[in-house]
Write a structure and sequence with these properties.
By secondary structure, this protein is α+β, with helices and mostly antiparallel strands. It has three helices and three strands. The chain has one domain. The chain has a three-stranded mixed sheet. The longest helix has 17 residues. It is globular and about 40 Å long. It starts with a strand and ends in an 8-residue tail after the last helix.
C-alpha cells in the first residue's frame, strides 16, 4: 500500500512490500513521493528519517503542512511502527 497525505501533497512508497501498490501518479500527478523499504520502516532510527523526509517534502509542497507538526510526526511514527514492527528474526 502506498500511503497518501493528499492535503500535504506527499506519498510514501514502500518499494519492497509485497502487499504494496506503487504510488498512483496518474491520480496524483504533482504528488511528491518518498520511497522507503520495509527494513527502513522496521528500524526505529531509519523510520524516524523516513518520517522526517515526508515532513520535509510536505513543507516543500506549499500545501498545508499537516505532517510537519511534532504531533503529526509522533502519530506517523506510531503508525509506521505498528504497520512495520521490527522483525523477530533480525540478524
Amino acid at each position: 500500500m502506498a500511503l497518501y497525505w493528499p492535503h500535504s501533497n506527499v506519498a510514501l512508497d514502500v518499494t519492497d512490500d509485497p502487499h504494496s501498490m506503487p504510488v498512483d501518479t496518474d491520480a496524483f500527478p504533482h504528488i511528491r513521493v518518498v520511497s522507503a523499504t520495509c527494513a527502513e520502516l522496521r528500524n526505529p532510527a531509519l523510520r524516524r528519517q523516513v518520517a522526517e523526509r515526508l515532513a520535509r517534502e510536505a513543507r516543500g509542497s506549499h500545501a498545508p503542512g499537516a505532517l510537519s507538526s511534532l504531533t503529526a510526526q509522533a502519530q506517523l511514527q506510531r503508525f509506521l511502527a505498528t504497520a512495520y514492527p521490527p522483525s523477530s528474526d533480525a540478524a
